[in-house]
Amino acid sequence: MMRLDRRDFLKCTAAGAAGLAAFHSVFLGRVFGAAESRSAAAPGQKVKRWALVVDLQKCIEGKAKGCINACHQWHNVPEWPEERLEVKWIWEEKFSRLFPDQSFAHMPEALRDRPVLALCNHCANPPCVRVCPTKATFKRPDGIVAMDMHRCIGCRFCIAACPYGARSFNWKNPREAENLRHHINLEYPTRARGVVEKCNFCAERLADGLQPVCVERAEDGALIFGDLNDPASKAAQVLAAGFAIRRKPSLETDPQVYYLISTVR
Amino acid sequence: MRLYNGMIIVPGLLLFLAVVTFPFWIGKVRAGEIKTFESRPAPAGIACVLPKKQMREQHMALLKQWRDQVVREGDRAPVKLVNGQTMELSLTNGCMKCHAKEDCGPYRAHATYCVDCHDYVGIRVDCWTCHIDPMPNMMEKK
């Protein structure tokens, strides 16, 4: 019988490992290669970083309602009369609630109580993604914090993790809501009872080269959407020429919704 | 040898066998009621994503692959149909836009067509709780 000494054993092991590796890269590469190359960015195409700038001078009370309704109609967001059932993608909240760190006793009351537009911040460092046990919520290469409804198990860890209150749970079947009973937008699916939902930066419209619904609806450029990795984009230029704040930056989530206070002259 | 209580044991055994083998023969008994899906001719000028046989066997796998492609990879490139036309990569605005149209002939309608076969094979497709079925009869049920 053949006897293997230690050296031969190691040689055989190494040869076997090399063989496996070759098999893996040549054979499996051919099988799965197509899928892999699809997810990689096309050569020459720079990675995007989508962001939204809310101009606080222009996005004033009353006007924001139109943007909110337009978004909720497009995405078939249910409207429930009970507040505890509320589902929202974009909404209004008092300045002092959105920016507790920037609020103080002697600031103008009109500013402190002023309703300001809020939505998912599409954080560069999103806590919701970190806690999701099924990877139903994930960060896309272009910065959008997306949700895969097919994977959501409704555990609501993400709701607890989000410091901005941007996520809602479907306690009831959304199609039973009064507004969806009368009108449903065929362009976008509804959700089901038992899943979490939030703003998706209109990923489905960006794919068609359109702007997000709220931005399209906003009057005189109150909302500016763009790619911050492209210095020529309007959003990048506005931020470079102005003073903007973000919600709770000290939490280091790196929010990508900016609130423009003023332009630096 | 004598069998005591044969009057109870023999029918009891037969009944037991009938119950245990129920799943194996009920299909055969009911087969007569089931419409076959073979006999429907394709409508002129309209084609699916793949030939009929492949479509029948692979549509569930295809849909899941496209779902991941769209949702997770953000790749919404339209797919080619057999006849060279293209279809938007979407359950409602791709598949159902055509399968709900009049000129899709016998292949029309989710409620009567897709569902007939799904009932036959005994599966419940839950996609329509979210994806919108453009057929009016389904829209009413909501």
Tell me what you see in this structure.
- The complex is a heterodimer of chains A (265) and B (142).
- Chain A has 265 residues and is of the alpha+beta class.
- Chain A has 10 helices and 10 strands.
- Chain A has one domain (6-39, 47-263): 2-Layer Sandwich (Alpha-Beta Plaits), CATH 3.30.70.
- Chain A has a 4-stranded mixed β-sheet with strand order 8-1-10-9.
- Residues 29-44 of chain A have low confidence and may be disordered.
- Chain B has 142 residues and is mostly helical.
- Chain B contains 6 helices and 2 strands; from the N terminus they run H-H-H-E-E-H-H-H.
- Chain B has a two-stranded antiparallel sheet with strand order 1-2.
- In chain B, strand 1 (79-80) and strand 2 form a beta hairpin.
- Chain B is elongated, with a radius of gyration of 22 Å.
- The relative contact order of chain B is 0.10.
- Chains A and B meet through loops of A and helix 3 and helix 4 of B.
> What structural category arises from helix and sheet content of chain A?
alpha+beta
According to DSSP, the number of beta strands of chain B is 2
CATH class of chain A: Alpha Beta
Q: What is the terminal-to-terminal distance of chain B?
A: 67 Å
Low-pLDDT residue intervals, each spanning 5 or more residues of chain B: 137-142
Within the CATH hierarchy, at the fold level, what is the topology of chain A? Alpha-Beta Plaits
Widest beta sheet: strand line-up of chain A: 8-1-10-9
Q: What series of H and E elements makes up the topology of chain B?
A: HHHEEHHH
Task: Determine the mean pLDDT of chain A.
Answer: 88
Average residue-wise pLDDT of chain B: 80
- Shape call of chain A: globular
How much helical structure, as a percent, in the residues of chain B? 40-55%
* Count of distinct structural domains of chain A: 1
Q: Gyration radius of chain B, to the nearest Å?
A: 22 Å
Fraction of helical residues of chain A: 25-40%
Overall 3D shape of chain B: elongated
Distance between the termini of chain A: 89 Å
Biggest beta sheet summary of chain B = 2 strands, antiparallel
Count every helix of chain B, treating DSSP H or I runs of 4 or more residues as helices: 6
Q: Helix count of chain A?
A: 10
